[in-house]
Amino acid sequence: MAEAIRVLAIDVKPEIQKLVKAGLVNCSIYEVLNSEMFESQYESWNPTNFDLIVCGPGWDGLGAGEIAQTLKMQFGETPILFVTDDSHVQVRSALQKNGFLDLFYIPMDTEIFLLCLADLEAVITGMPKTKLIGVSMLDISPGEKLDFDVSVFFPMNNKFIKLTKKGGQMTEQQVGHLKANSVSKLYIPEDQMENYNKYLAEQLKKTNGSPTEEKKLQNTIRNLFHDLLSPELANIQDGNNFSNTAKSVVAALLPKSPASNLNEQLLRLIDEHHTGVYITSQKVAAISGLLALAMGLSPEEVILSALLCDIGLVGLPLDLHEKDYLTLSPAEKEIISSHVARTLKILGEKKVALAPNVRNAIQQHHERFDGKGFPANLPGLKISTEAQILSFALQFEKYSAIRPGQKRVTSLEAVEKIGSTGSINPDIIYRIKLLLEQK
Amino acid sequence: MLNTAVKVLIIDDMKTMRKLVTKSLTEMGFSQFLEAEDGAKGWEVLSVNKGEIGLVVSDWNMPNCTGLDLLKRVRSDGRFAKMPFVLVTAESEKGQVIEALKVGVSAYVIKPFDTETLKSKLMEAQKKMAA
Hints:
The structure holds two protein chains of two kinds. By secondary structure, chain A is an alpha/beta fold. Chain A has 18 helices and eleven strands.
């Protein structure tokens, strides 16, 4: 039996205390009910008394900020969590400055809170614990063998329940129950994500044109997009998890050929340290491939274009590429524009044979529907669909990047923002919105 | 050697923090304290009790006149030019410490701190002002 975690609960409602008990394998809770109790006891507390502190908004004359600062003085490194069902908005950065590790609003953040408690318990007790990664609900057929554990969160008892073990199958009853309860998220152990990614990639290849298979494909693609911009995927490790998913998607959709290996080889050859460009191109390729597939286009050419289009960036100032082209100075525009010709020159020197659609996509991936792009200021329908998909994917990938302090947008919000730039054909924007809005 | 015979003015908008600082100072041997809940009230207390107060320990972030603003006022008044003045700051305000040094803070301590850390900062402050 795991060692009991001693929890200090300060102005924590009974329902939230129940959540704490649900989230920890074994715990005892010491409750502080009012400011008089706090003020009469806090000076005697020290890190040997409690392992974890959970704090609500506090009381009149003794708010959460003061409580946290005081507790930080007494407890040092003991984690302090702010948890409330009070909808009054608190600013995360202000609370963290006062000493809170993180803040949670219940019921919206219930699952994340429980996962956080499980992580802290593992750290405090030294017990190994597998982190669960939340992914959008898969369209799993009963009887389909799965090479990973599948868990689901049951809000009725605030617990993660394992539905099937690795190597097992979901039953008709389980699948029916999930659909009936509109479950939208499943949880996979972090160390089994590679197997999950392979399964997901296989789903993308599995279409025989039947309406059922087509719908399943569309669902899989949509869920991948939603996962990419999930608010939970807000740390570097989860970003790495998506990179691995992207690699599996690309590997599934791109048949092995000398050109398909070129991306990695060329980047390693040209500049060993430019792994940032390599990782970004993998993600952009996955997004492009998914979109092409969803639109009924062949994904291979778009993916290949995405993998190769930014090779010419290596050696150029990357911060310029991050900025909006329309805001650059003439000299900066000239530098950035040059990467398109550089890419084609490098590929020519390496004697890479490019299909016409791939060459056009690479040539035109920075052209804009409004004619303000580069290098040729091509307007509207003169730009190939593949190039437009690539351009969209490059912009969408930027919204998925993790930037500390920057609020995450949903996938639909990202599409709206990209649509408003005027760089993409409104018909393509419309079709992508349709894909992401479908239930 | 820390001079604990002086009266200390503790300024912080948080009652619990004032209590903790008083406790730490008591452990060091101080026994005379005055309190204020913000920089403006701190200035009033200093002015009324001029000559009696020998050390100021002030939080930085307070409503109604911050610790830094109080320090500026203190240093511009000839009566308090040599007053040891210690600012208590959060980690994120470290960048502003340079500004406080320019204004004439005697020492600063970063929250959370223990009694030993505060003691060494107070000794630093008293030594600096005596020089």
